[in-house]
Amino acid sequence: MNTVLWVVLPYLSAAVFAVGTVAGRRGRRRWTVRSGHRPGPAVLRWGSPVFHAAWAGVVLGHLVGLLVPARVTAAAGLDAAAYGRAASWLGVAAGTAAVLGLAVMVLHRRRTGSPTAPPDRRDAATHLLLAAVLLLGLYVTARGQGGGDAYRETAGPWVRSLLVLRPDPALAAEMPPVLRAHVLAAFALLAAWPFTRLAHAFLLPVGYLARPYVLYRAHPRRRPRRAAPAAAGRPVP
Fold first, then answer.
1. What residue intervals traverse the membrane (predicted)?
2. Cβ-proximal residues to 153 (8 Å cutoff; 6+ apart), any chain
């Protein structure tokens, strides 16, 4: 069972993510992400920027925590205790902001959506999956496991073993139960990503920065045409 959960499932999720991403960008059914922005109360419009900024912080924190070994941070002069405190405080801040931003976005969508439109089950499932990943991760981080030994000695080495194609499921089996649930939810989100509204993360107009300049030419002003002089003896209309 450990092999299925901690070896087969991660590679399967990554494969579905890769194939779905390529199919979405190049296949017949190209991505057409509908806009989720609708006019509504100004107090609810801050949810989207807060969520996206916090999500970027969450992803960056995971990349550092999972890919940078403990010996590297120790060589840089950051001991395990200091790293754990920094990871916990920053992780709790980013996770809390992401949860609040997601809640406000969902509330905004429900407040401004059409009452006659049928509910989008795919969006609802995406919101539930995002909430599960964030809440489980926030719980793990708040308990001090996000930057502690349970994380850096089990989750980090296990992820790096997957990347070098030498998976070690025994490391994942030693993770705390909540951390394992967080990891499984994260892989489920990874597999579903290309088939949900989250695919807009790959639709950033990066090519806009390298496109040639658009030249605009002003048209010369035309003088207003004067009316023809009226014939003698005829009134001017």
1. 6-25, 46-68, 88-108, 124-142, 198-216
2. 70
Residue 236 domain-assigned? Answer: no
Residue 184's CB is within 10 A of a number of other CB atoms, namely 19
Cβ–Cβ contacts within 10 Å for residue 142, how many? 14
- Span 13-70, pLDDT tens digits: 999 999 988 887 665 455 555 555 555 566 567 888 899 999 999 999 999 999 998 8
Q: How far apart are CA 53 and CA 95, in angstroms?
A: 11
CATH number at residue 101: 1.20.950.20
Token pair for residue 29? 């059914």
Q: Is residue 139 part of a domain?
A: yes
Q: How many domains does the chain have?
A: 1
**DSSP per-residue letters across 110-150:** HHHS-TTSPP-HHHHHHHHHHHHHHHHHHHHHHTT-SSSHH
- Distance between CA atoms of 183 and 185, rounded to whole angstroms? 5
Q: Which of 25, 40, 195 is nearest to 123 (CA)?
A: 195
- The count of other CB atoms within 10 Å of the CB of residue 217 is 5
Q: Taking each helix axis from N to C terminus, what angle separates 47-67 and 156-163, rounded to the nearest 10 degrees?
A: 80
Q: Which amino acid is at 119?
A: P
If you average pLDDT over residues 148-159, what whole number do you get? 83
Whole domain around residue 169: which residue ranges? 40-198
